[in-house]
Amino acid sequence: MKIKMLCRWALVLVSGLALSSASSSQDMPSSRYAVLKEAPGVSEEAIRAAVDPLFGADADPSLGETRALIVMRRGEIIAERYAPGYGPDSRFLSWSIAKTVTGLLAGIMVSDGKLALDDPAPVAAWRQPGDPRAAITLRELLQMRSGLRNEELWQPALHTDALDMLVGDGARDQAAFAIAKPLVHPPGQRFAYSSATSMILAGVMTDQLTNSRDPQARRDAMARFITARLTGPLGLASLVPEYDESGTLSAAAMMHMNLRDYARLGEFIRLRGEIGGRQIMPGQWFDIMTAPSPANPAYGVQLWLNRASDQTVLFPGEALPSLMAAVGHRGQYVLISPEQGLTIVRLGITRDEDMGALRSALARLVRRFPT
Fold this sequence. Notes:
Elements: H1 2-20, E1 35-36, H2 44-51, E2 65-73, E3 76-82, E4 92-93, H3 97-112, H4 138-142, H5 161-167, H6 174-179, H7 195-209, H8 215-234, E5 240-241, E6 255-257, H9 259-270, E7 274-275, E8 278-279, H10 284-289, E9 304-305, E10 324-328, E11 332-337, E12 342-349, H11 355-367
Helix pairs in contact: 1-5, 3-7, 7-8
C-alpha cells in the first residue's frame, strides 16, 4: 500500500511539472522581462532590485526556484518575468491556491441562495441520529474549524490524512474519504488547516448542481458551473481543474493556470468581485472572505490574512495588515494588497525550511510600493 501511494504521489508531482513546463514558443530568456516599467511612487530600478534576486544565477539559493512572477499595480502589469523553460503559456500547478478558488465558488452559491453560511452543512452522511457532525456549519468548513480529525502533512514517507486522500485509499472519492473523518473537537472552536475540508466543500457544491452519482455527470455539472460563473466572466482561459474518479472537483490542490490568470484571480479579489466595470459577485462576499476566523486571526474563508498567529504563512509586521493571499505548497503566492492597489504572483519551488527567506523577499517587494 505504501509503495502504491508513493507511486501515485510521484505521478502527481510529475504531472504538475509537465503542465508547468508546457511553455510558449515565444518564451523569453531569464535575463529579459516581458514588461518592466515605473509605477507611481516607485522607480523601475527599485522594482528590478526587488525582483532580480528571485531569478537567475545571482538568485539567493535559499529562496528556491522562482519560475514566474508578475506585479500588477492598479490593474496594470508593472513587471513580468519567467525562468528559462517557462513563459506566458505555461500552466503552473496551483497547490492550495485552489482552495481560494473553492472559496469563490462557494461564495457564488451562497449569493445565489443555493447554500447558507450558518446552516448545518448539507452532508447526507452526517444526518444520522446522534451524529455530532450534523452541527458543523458551512461557515465553519470554509474557515477550517470543523473539528474533524485531520493531519495536514505532505511528506510521502509519513502516513497522513492529506496524502491518504490525494494518493492513497481515499483518492477515488476524496470527498467521501474526508466526510468519513470523526469529530475530535467541538465544531467551530479549533483551527485546523485541511485539504480534506476543501474536498468536503467540493462535494457539497457538486450536490447542489446535480443529484446524479455518475462521475461524468458530476464532473460535467461542476465544469459548466465553473465556466459560466467564474472562468468565463473572469477570462481565465487557461484554467484546467482536475477531478477525482468520483467526478468531484479537486478543490484542495489540483488546478492549473498560467501566470496572468493567477493575477486575474488576485485582481478579482482586490476589486471585490468586479471585472471590467461589471459586478460578477456581490462585494459583501469579500467582507466575509476577508474577515478573520474566530479560531485563527490569520485565516478568512479559504484565504490567508496578514495577521499574527501560531502559523506564519504571510509576513505580519513586514507589510500592511490588510494584505491577503492565496498560498500554495512549495511557495505559490497570489498576494493582494488593496490599500496599495497591488497584486503579486510568485510561482516556483521552495523547500519548507527556506520558506521564511522567501517570505522576507516577497515582503521587500511589497514594501517597494507606497499605499
